[in-house]
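Reading is simple: each integer encodes one residue's backbone shape. The lines below illustrate:
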Amino acid sequence: MAYTTTATTKGGRDGRAVLENGGLGLAMALPKEMGGSGEGHNPEQLFALGWSSCFGQAILALSKKHGVDGQAARVTVSIGIDKDDVSFALSAEIKVSIPGADRAKVEALVEDAHRICPYSRATRNNVPVKLTVV
């Protein structure tokens, strides 16, 4: 195993989440849209942060192959949560912008990055994902 991290939460969506090394601790709160106070963070926000960073790294790793400047890439991940027939389900949209780059090259790069990004791989065939080049 190259790397492992551990987080512990007490109190669920209205509790506190901390990393084992003490480097980050966050107050958690159910979003206002779901009936909560919204005065804290929620798992969907944290998932969006992690996925956007991870996807950005996949862009960097593959950008030379596609002939674009990966350093100029801006990756935005939106995570949605809604009721489904079982309970709740996530959805995602990944938007990538690389100013000045050829759109077809960026589209190919985004598809390629979606194949290798660990977050994309972990959610494949389970979370609907919309890829958008802006």
Remarks:
- Helices lie at 43-66, 103-116, 118-123.
- Residues 43-133 form a domain with the GMP Synthetase; Chain A, domain 3 fold (CATH 3.30.300.20).
- The two ends are 36 Å apart (CA to CA).
